[in-house]
Amino acid sequence: MRAIRLQTEYLTRPLGLGITKPRFYWNCEGGSVQTAYQIIARKNGETVWDSGKVASASMTHICYGGKPLQSRDRIDWQVRLWDENDHPGEWSGSWFEVGLLKKADWSAKWMTGDYRPGKNVRYPVDCFRKTFPVKGTVARARLYITACGLYEARLNGRRVGRYCLAPGCTDYRKRLQYQTYDVADFLAAYNTLEIQLADGWYRGSVGCYGMTNVFGRESKIFCQMEITYADGSRNTIISDDSWSWSNDGPCRFADLKDGEIYDARRKPSYRGRARLTKAPEDMILAAADNVCPTEQEHFPAKLIITPAGKKVLDFGQNLAGFLSFTVHGEKGQQIKLRLGEMLDEKGEFTQKNIQSVKPVREVGKLGEVFLAVGMGGKLPGEKQMTPKQEILFTCSGGIDHYKTAFAVSGFRYALIETEIEVDPQAFEAIAVYSDMEQTGSFRCSNGKVNQLFHNTLWSMKGNFLDVPTDCPTRERLGWTGDAQIFFETGAYLMNTAPFFRKWLRDVKDGQKKDGSLSAVVPYNGLSLMYDNTGASVGWADAVVLVPYRYWKRYGDRRILRENYQTMRKLAMFMIQNTGHKNKKAARANPYNKYVYEKGFHLGEWLEPEEFQKKITAGHRALHTEEATAYLHYTMSCMAEIAGELQQQEDEKLFAEYADGAVKAYDYLFLKSGTIDTDRQAKLVRPLALGLLSGEKKSNVEKRLKQAVEKGAYCVGTGFLSTPFVLPVLTGAGYTETAYKMLENERAPGWLAEINAGATTIWEDWEGRVSRNHYSPGAVCQWLFETVAGIRPDGENHFKIAPVPGGTLTYAEAGYQSIYGKIESRWTRTEDGVRYTIIVPANTTAEVIFPDGDRCVIAAGCHEFERKQPGGMRMSSFLQAAQQPAFMSMQQRGKCPYFTGGGNDENL
């Protein structure tokens, strides 16, 4: 047996790690059960930790136990395993390198361009340059770099690293990420380091109203390159006022949302000098400990001529990313491109679904109030649309190659306006998102359901760029509710462990003293809007629900310890705000202490239009039902977390409020013994959040089935309840009802969007706003957990409980879990269903069939045939009791596993 897929802190060979007690992870291959492991860690060839032989089947969260780590330490570590026969396997190795841990490690100075930024002025990209020699044989070279703004570094003409839109998105008032790059192979005898600096999140256009200069007016760079020679000496190149600078290069304007203006006739002159500037105050400078945003898939263009004769490029996939092209025009000729998600009802290019109106000039605090209450049109002065998502390119006269660098757009289409004869094949769309490994796959006999899965995956890709955003266009904000709603689905689709660890640091940074926070994390301005909605249930609860689900998904107790005080502060905020707003109602309710309704709540956001209650500046509807239900749910999770961390007093308090909220909910909403409504969310929520039992539960389940049938199996839920509706139906035994809702092709519904040509998930069921919004795609959790039946169930163990149904003749899914890749397939046969399950080495799975029969299986490939009406027969192929833990390629070839399951070496 040997270890494969070695990782440190969920990352493969991380460079610049900021965690001083990192943990090790691996999967097993070539045996049945891991009975022991040994880890040896070395620094410069010297052993700094030897775990010895540890009798354990654990292969996750193995904490480094050696000498304390220091800045710049590079640790080579290797692991070997003992199998079920106590035979040791071969060594497998990996490495990680520590970043700069202390403020004293930095000798760099903050530098900026030699100008004083003014109000209502946008500036070209700054260009910095430093030349320096190398004096000796280089053993190691690292560039540590960050910026207030966006940077791109080139050393001797080569781009440094793959990180796009560095240093990423944080609350720049509190935290700034730096990156570490290995640049040893870039160096020559004499060297030129060039850095471009754009506005980015720091002072560029952000949020739904395109606010600018949210964090400051002065963008700046902070970097140091450390060159270590073979003799042990070190040379350090730092950012300071010795650098050359100019802002007369080709990129005349660069904004994350509005796009770029690029003049290929220009080159930076570097005639000026960088200017020293103040360091940001009270800011944590830290390693991201995360995967970085990178360029991913490339999509070629197809030319469309619209009914009005406009030229539009169609890239076939709605995505978030860059645009690149090659063009040969006369000097000074221009190409203008506008990027958008859709064509209108006449087949013309439009941006109407992604744009808002904002003043051209900065609005100030009073103007923010007008924008927040929907009265931006009443502000004085010239207006403009935001985001522009526009590229204006001027040709040099030769062959020009262009690729966006400092703007990311959400688009499928590009309206092209130019007199130049262009070749559509010279244009590409490039997806840009955080470099998370895809861990989930799904396929079934219904091609439209497969497209739903595809659309959900692509909406995740379009919105997981260092922050889990709501859409890549109009807002592009880290709404907390969207993140918690989608967490489980996202964790099936991709390895989100490092991504959400980073975002939870953003959450901690954004929490207020009273325990509440903004509905948008990280902070992006317009606090009047986002702070007022931040305490809403379903959104604020992300503080608790994301760490809770992270713990359950990855078995990571450290995430609970690191975030416990943040979670507890939110829970105490909720407790301190219980009770009816109305004093008469409070006196009349014996369970008033456990009612939750105070504050502003968004409720069941974006239900189908017929159920929506409009929110206006002068009217705030009470959402007592939603809020009290979430009080129970959140307090239940907090009680479990407190128990896990042995916080007994907290556990008792949170359990009291969890139980009390059930009584309050029953008193307010279940006096008749049921809930009589066709509004699906009102029926789904108490069932999903554990507020019902016994006859009342059965009554509400039946009423939900009636409501779904009456609604012709269309989806009637909004953000909060859409992830729950199908699991609740199947949990109640209404499997065919759930499948009919999934496969329904009428609006509102998932497949209606497919029929309308969607390649991503729409924000609303009507398709009038963002068309790249992952939240309603949270239904894909049900595809994994119910259709294919895959559920992680504790360390090294799974539950496999597939539930065939609907018109599907087969379904299959694979999930590369933290413990290995688990796969499940079922196929209808003439007299029943055949199930095929592949269990990874060093794990077990409990298989539960729809009729309730169950068995426990070990690693290997297993087949079961279930005849109708009952009875189980295990295939003679690979009997469960005789499973080898690792199948050879020949053995795998006999197993009818999946066409969409990935590469053989990953099975």
UniProtKB/TrEMBL annotation:
<keyword id="KW-0378">Hydrolase</keyword>
<dbReference type="InterPro" id="IPR035398">
    <property type="entry name" value="Bac_rhamnosid_C"/>
</dbReference>
<dbReference type="InterPro" id="IPR013783">
    <property type="entry name" value="Ig-like_fold"/>
</dbReference>
<dbReference type="InterPro" id="IPR008928">
    <property type="entry name" value="6-hairpin_glycosidase_sf"/>
</dbReference>
<dbReference type="Pfam" id="PF08531">
    <property type="entry name" value="Bac_rhamnosid_N"/>
</dbReference>
<dbReference type="InterPro" id="IPR012341">
    <property type="entry name" value="6hp_glycosidase-like_sf"/>
</dbReference>
<dbReference type="Pfam" id="PF17389">
    <property type="entry name" value="Bac_rhamnosid6H"/>
</dbReference>
<dbReference type="InterPro" id="IPR016007">
    <property type="entry name" value="Alpha_rhamnosid"/>
</dbReference>
<dbReference type="Pfam" id="PF05592">
    <property type="entry name" value="Bac_rhamnosid"/>
</dbReference>
<feature type="domain" description="Alpha-L-rhamnosidase concanavalin-like">
    <location>
        <begin position="307"/>
        <end position="432"/>
    </location>
</feature>
<dbReference type="InterPro" id="IPR008902">
    <property type="entry name" value="Rhamnosid_concanavalin"/>
</dbReference>
<feature type="domain" description="Bacterial alpha-L-rhamnosidase N-terminal">
    <location>
        <begin position="137"/>
        <end position="269"/>
    </location>
</feature>
<feature type="domain" description="Alpha-L-rhamnosidase six-hairpin glycosidase">
    <location>
        <begin position="437"/>
        <end position="787"/>
    </location>
</feature>
<dbReference type="Pfam" id="PF17390">
    <property type="entry name" value="Bac_rhamnosid_C"/>
</dbReference>
<dbReference type="GO" id="GO:0030596">
    <property type="term" value="F:alpha-L-rhamnosidase activity"/>
</dbReference>
<dbReference type="InterPro" id="IPR013737">
    <property type="entry name" value="Bac_rhamnosid_N"/>
</dbReference>
<dbReference type="InterPro" id="IPR035396">
    <property type="entry name" value="Bac_rhamnosid6H"/>
</dbReference>
<dbReference type="GO" id="GO:0005975">
    <property type="term" value="P:carbohydrate metabolic process"/>
</dbReference>
<feature type="domain" description="Alpha-L-rhamnosidase C-terminal">
    <location>
        <begin position="796"/>
        <end position="854"/>
    </location>
</feature>
<protein>
    <recommendedName>
        <fullName>alpha-L-rhamnosidase</fullName>
        <ecNumber>3.2.1.40</ecNumber>
    </recommendedName>
</protein>
<dbReference type="Pfam" id="PF25788">
    <property type="entry name" value="Ig_Rha78A_N"/>
</dbReference>
